[in-house]
Amino acid sequence: MRKAVLDTNILVSALWSQQGNPYKIVEMFFKKEITLYYVPEIIEEYTEVLNRTKLNFSNNKVSSLLQEIRKNGILADSTVSTVLFSDESDRIFYDTAKTNDAILITGNLKHFPKEPFIMTPNDFLTKLEQGV
């Protein structure tokens, strides 16, 4: 099973629309086709962002999603890297993925260093289809 860390924008996109690749990836987690790795700081960011009033997500949907991640994801370790980030809030996703040899899936590649374990939802799904 593939190990993954999801940037918050993947969850936002999945809650906005059931049509796109972010939703497919979240569904893969629910079907136990991928394992999500997280640390408390990631859950804190998910909680803060997904509960923003302007996003207008159902409290039940957000709570259920976060509960599922806590229940069936892996509470992981994370070693702080020395990589420079323009937005320090992105570091925890990078460090958690790097520490746990997981794929970091994000819709914002420009926020992260160019590394083979960091990919867009489309790239992730394509590599899975190709068996890479």
Structural features, described:
With 132 residues, the protein is of the alpha/beta class. The chain has one domain: Rossmann fold. Helix content is 48%, strand content 13%. It is built from six helices and five strands, in the order E-H-H-E-H-H-E-H-E-E-H. The protein has helices at 8-16, 21-30, 40-50, 59-72, 91-99, 121-130, and strands at 2-6, 34-38, 74-75, 103-105, 118-119. The chain has a five-stranded parallel beta sheet with strand order 3-2-1-4-5, with helices on both faces. Helix 1 (8-16) crosses helix 2 (21-30).
N-to-C span: 12 Å
* Strand neighbour order, sheet with most strands: 3-2-1-4-5
Instruction: Give the ordered list of helices and strands.
Output: EHHEHHEHEEH
Alpha-beta classification: alpha/beta
Note the overall shape.
Answer: globular
Give the number of helices.
Answer: 6
Low-confidence stretches: none
CATH hierarchy, class: Alpha Beta
Strand content: 5-15%
- The rounded Rg comes to 14 Å
- Tell me the quaternary state: single chain
Residues in helices, as a percent range: 40-55%
CATH topology group: Rossmann fold
> Quick one: CATH superfamily?
5'-nuclease
Number of strands: 5
CATH architecture: 3-Layer(aba) Sandwich
Provide the number of structural domains: 1
For the biggest sheet, the summary is: 5 strands, parallel
Overall average residue pLDDT: 95
